[in-house]
Amino acid sequence: MGIADSGTGQGGQPQADLLVVGAGVAGLWLSIKAARAGLSVTLIERDRIGAGASGGFLGALMPHSPERWNEKKDFQFRALVDLETEIAALENETGLPCGYRRVGRILPLHTERARETALDNIAQARTNWSGRFQFNVANTPDRHDWPSILWAPRGIVHETLSARLSPPALLAALAARLGQMPNVLVREGVALTGISHRERRAGLSDGSKLAFGHIALANGVDAFSMIAEAQGAPELDLGGPVKGQAALLDAGAPPDLPVVYHDGVYVLVHENGLVAVGSTSERQFDDPTGTDGQLDDVLKRARKLCPLIGDAPVVGRWAGVRPRAVGRDPMLGPVPGAPHVLAMTGGFKITFGIAHRMADCLLAHVTGSEGPVCPESFSVEAHTAKAKPSAHRPLPRS
Ligand SMILES: Cc1cc2nc3c(=O)[nH]c(=O)nc-3n(C[C@H](O)[C@H](O)[C@H](O)COP(=O)(O)OP(=O)(O)OC[C@H]3O[C@@H](n4cnc5c(N)ncnc54)[C@H](O)[C@@H]3O)c2cc1C
User: Fold this and answer.
1) Strand partners, 127
2) CB of 202 closer than 6 A to ligand 1?
3) Is the CB of 24 under 6 A from ligand 1?
4) Is the pTM of this model over 0.90?
5) Claim to verify: residue 81 and residue 176 sit in the same structural domain
6) Rounded mean pLDDT for each run of 10 residues along the chain, 398 residues in total
7) Nearest Cα to 274, choosing from 319, 316, 320?
8) What is the residue range of 31's domain?
């Protein structure tokens, strides 16, 4: 599809049915889903595909714990189940592997209380994980698990729902798929600078304007202030960045090893044997993309957790900022008072596992078709109800 960049299209028609802002994992999935549904899509990206939080190398796809089940956990569970098929279709369409494997996960148990909770969760998982996936408590990992988890005095949980993928491989496949679709235009190096939601026009950093049917703000941490602005309340603090640092190690580890997770530290093996270790969780930081001693601490804990990577050399260090919405849940759906402006952000630590399903929800809203149930807590209204005026922006003068 060729889209002229100035003014409205012929007969005042929108020039893109859907304008997607931000080419991270969220914006890429949404663009593909919308294009598959026959919409004309323009995807703009300020920098380059994967320039934001999606440009790292972790890719853990870990479920919430199976107890105290709610809509959010159900949404994520279904997304994690479906992702396997979604990725198989994408790989089939593009011929590009995404490094996906359902390897499961091990959680070392350090206290009697943790073991008791884990034992209770066996039944919860049986009920809430549809009987297809296991959640077991064992004394030691079996042969297929990490050969030595150094310290797991109360045994381990081994669950078989978790998976992992390679973020750069997934992004490459998503981008390649978009390149195959005639109704998609991808423009890197072009930022959204403003929205006139009544006229349904976007201002772009190259000085042009683009008319849209809907616009989706999938631009990660930068989306929150734009969503506040679009609903006429620019002073609201709807969310912000939480920095994370991660490392990549050359350990030559077997790619079927489960993800290991303990107390915020996780270790996973990619198909090529490289081991990714994450991650810090920082609210205060000066440099959003720099790594420092906090990553060294995570590495130290990871090496202790999994002696297999004990002296493996570090071959990559990376940091990025995750979008965390004020209500902690993802932020998804129309902006109050601006129904053609859609929020798609706030996936925080789980976006890689749910972005495809977030896209299905948003697309159903755009096309008026039936889509997955989107939890009420994801709505912009729900987040707005929890938002306070931003400490970072000046309040309007009365
Ligand atoms: C260290 C670390 C480890 C992580 N590990 C995992 C993990 O194992 N599993 C998991 O699921 N998640 C993980 N996450 C979280 C995950 O990476 C993020 O939740 C996810 O990448 C967010 O994707 P996104 O598409 O919403 O945003 P982003 O990837 O940040 O994409 C937003 C894009 O919008 C662009 N943009 C911004 N403003 C504009 C504008 N005005 N106009 C046009 N474009 C704009 C940016 O350049 C960027 O490319 C991790 C994050 C970090 C930092």
Assistant:
1) none
2) no
3) yes
4) yes
5) yes
6) 38 78 98 98 98 98 96 97 98 98 96 96 96 91 72 92 98 98 98 96 96 98 98 96 98 94 96 97 97 98 93 97 97 97 98 98 96 96 91 43
7) 316
8) 1-101+163-238+326-398
